[in-house]
Amino acid sequence: MSDSSEVEPRPGAPAFLPQSIGARRGGLALAAALAAFGLLFVWQAAGLDLGGIGLPGAGFFPLMTGAALAAFAIAIGVQLLREPDDGRVIEFGHRDVLIVFAAMLGVPLLFEPLGAYGTLGLFGAVLLVLIARTSLVRAGIAAVVAMTMCWGFFQQLLGLQLPAGPW
Amino acid sequence: MTGFEQLVDGFAVALSWKGLLYCFIGCLWGTIVGVLPGLGPLAGMTLLLPLTFGLEPTIGIIMLTGIFYGAMYGGSTTSILVRIPGEAASVVTCIDGYEMARQGRAGPALMIAAIGSFIGGTFSILGLMFIAPPLAKVMVAIGPSVEVVLMLLALSVIAIVSAGSRAKTAAMLLLGLVLGTVGLDNLTGTARFTFGNADLAGGLSFTALAIGLFGISEILINLEKTETIKAIQPKMRELIPRWKDLRESSGAVGRASVIGFIFGIIPGVSHVVSTFVSYAAEKRISKHPEQFGKGAIAGVAGPETANNAVTGTAMIPLLALGIPSIPATAILLSALTIHGVQPGPLLLKDHPEVFWGLVASMYIGNIMLLILNLPLVGIFVNLLRIPYAWLVPIILIVSIIGVYSVNSSVADIWIMVLSGGAGYVLRKFGYEMAPLLLALVLGDRLEDNFRLALTMSGGSYATFADHASIIVVASVAGLLLSVQALAWAFGYRKSFADEAERA
Fold first, then answer.
1. Tens place of pLDDT for every residue, chain A, 167 residues?
2. What ipTM goes with this model?
3. Which chain A residue's Cα is nearest to B180?
């Protein structure tokens, strides 16, 4: 689909990334996780008022849907076990993906203590340096400009109040 | 008030300065997200969803809908000039569109795509205008039991016709239903799965989940790719098609309008399917099928018309029945609900200005897009030169602010981030997010109507098999079988769409 494009090697990524996982093994793990999630809802729903079959209570619907989810997840797992392993692998742990996800995890932690604009400015600058590979100075300038524009648009124009932090 | 008078009132809303401004913003942003590979109309709509909360319901919906059909227009640009579909519905256009561009005929390809999109879009709006009001009148008398049957039918159809594994689709539907039970029970006020956390009392934020599952996961997946983009740059004077091009594509445009119209109504059948059916139909009918794949103009005109013809008819189940048939309309449902407007049979009675204002704005938006797309194609192509690594922080920052603005809650940012990670992993293993989102939106109403129907019938399940329910099931089943037969007759196979969705 992208014959017109050139694939370039990604600079800066450690040699051990990305890691490959067998599609079958990963699929089984994911099916197991979905089944466990469904069973968690079944367990929690069982502690609620289930009502009667003709007049269901608050726990009835989540219990039934949780059980159905677990059943389908198990069926997916059984299907994967019955199919021969075609050797297909799925890659995880691409450098830029890990960096962006880790940075995103930091945002809600710092959003209120550091303030919205401080946190998002830092977030943007980190991403520009690490994935766009710009210089620190350029990233800093871009972050300041971006946060000024965000403040003007969201706070002044739309009247949206964001956490100010210690500032 | 007659329908015509209500349409005139609708134009009064759509032609107000706010209506025009937000329609333009939606169309422009929609075209941009359609052009940029990896964003897509869903991510585009969810990103701007929080911004609609301060607007009137009609104006907010006008903007969001503009993004939806704007993305259909924009997606064709990258398909034709780069051979990378801007969004899934433009996959088929890559085949002949790019070949035309390589032959120095990018301009006519873009022009025919724009004209076909305009005609298909207009045709579907007419359908919306003439079908939704009488359908709503018929459905206004339905009780909760028939609503349950309709919703279960919609979810079942999604499980059967969606791309990929049916078991995985069913699992995602059930996951959506399960996640929808988090929060206070609507009927008894019992806290469910909140674990004592007050932030979860209102349930999981739909906006956060939608942005996470679609927008964030899409960004993470695109970060894995290392392609640089080279676009063919058309010249303005080359945009004018030959008379021969117009003649050869006119039949395709007409047929694709009907195909897109029909497929738009069916739940879970994305606009991707309508484009494949249209392409298969044109190739089957053509006197020169050997030209398809080598720059046949009907191979561009048909799919591009079909994907826009879906947009209006996809609104019919949402506005007349309150049931979203595709994820984009699920987002519109969420936006309307947040504004206190419940889509469904009573919408035309209680809030006619929303329906007719939307219909009128779709006419105006289609005209705006026809005018916007061609002169600005050079600008849109230059957008493709912005390194993706620069776009990512911008998109994420806007997403975070948008999500936080809904409830001023950091918990929603957590939900967005974690659902983004979960969506990324699920998509890598072939699980679709669209069924999850649709079920999440419908789950609450499904459960409430289910329990209400049983309360009204004194606990008897026979209420779900009454006369009205049987008519509904039979009608929908008949429609689905007819459409499936039509698609097969034109050589469409589900595997084509499966491959396109994975591309």
1. 333 333 444 555 566 667 788 889 999 999 999 999 999 999 999 999 888 878 888 999 999 999 999 999 999 999 999 988 888 888 888 899 999 999 999 999 999 999 999 999 999 999 999 999 999 999 999 999 999 998 888 888 777 788 888 76
2. 0.89
3. A62
Out of A75, A90, A132, closest to residue B167 by CB: A75
Torsion, Cα B237 B239 B245 B251, to 10 degrees, reads -150
Q: Token pair for residue B383?
A: 């957008």
| Separation between Cα atoms, residue B272 and residue B303, nearest integer Å | 9
Q: Where does residue B195 fall: left (phi above 0), alpha (psi -120 to 50 degrees), or beta otherwise?
A: left
Closest CA to B64 of B275, B210, B235: B210
* pTM of the predicted structure, to 2 decimals: 0.81
Taking the C-alpha atoms of residue B135 and residue A29, their distance in angstroms, rounded to an integer, is 46
Find the CB nearest B178 among A69, A75, A104. Answer: A69
Residue B301, classified by CB atoms within 10 Å of its CB into exposed (0-12), middle (13-18) or buried (19+), is buried
Burial group, residue B62, by CB count within 10 angstroms (0-12, 13-18, 19+): buried
Q: Which of chain B's residues have a Cβ under 8 Å away from the Cβ of A117?
A: none
b or e along B427-464 (b: 16 or more beta carbons within 10 Å of the residue's beta carbon)? bbbbbbbbbbbbbbbbbbbbbbbbbbbbeebeeeeebb
Q: Which helix (H) or strand (E) holds A6?
A: strand A6-7
What is chain B's length? 503
With H, G, I as helix, E, B as strand and everything else as coil, classify residue B384. coil
Which among B174, B401, B424 has the least Cβ separation from residue A154? B401
Give the separation between CA B97 and CA B293, rounded to whole angstroms: 9
Q: Do A127 and B188 touch (CB under 8 A)?
A: no
Q: Which of B362, B438, B128 is nearest to B261 (CA)?
A: B128
Q: Chain A partners of B165 at a C-beta cutoff of 8 Å?
A: 76
- Sorted by sequence, the CB contacts under 8 Å of residue B327 that are 6+ apart come out as B42, B214, B433, B434, B437, B438
Per-domain boundaries in chain A: 19-92, 95-157
CA gap A101, B212 in Å, rounded? 12
Contacts of B188 in chain A (CB under 8 A): 49, 57-58
Q: Answer whether B432's CB lies under 8 Å from B163's CB.
A: yes
- 8 Å CB contact of B223 and A96: yes
CA angle B48, B52, B53 (to 5 degrees): 125
CB B429 within 8 A of CB A30: yes
The residues, ordered by sequence, that sit 6+ positions from B5 with a Cβ below 8 Å of its Cβ are none
- What is the Cα–Cα distance from B428 to B222, expressed in whole angstroms? 12
At residue B193, φ and ψ (nearest 5 deg) are 60, 30
Cis amide bond preceding A18, omega within 30: yes
| Residue A110 CB neighbours (<10 A) | 18
Partners of B461 on chain A (C-beta within 8 Å) are 54
Token digits of residue B255:
């047929």
Strand ranges inside B124-260, DSSP E: 183-184, 191-192, 227-228
What is the pairing mode between strands B183-184 and B191-192?
Answer: antiparallel
d(CA B39, CA B319): 26
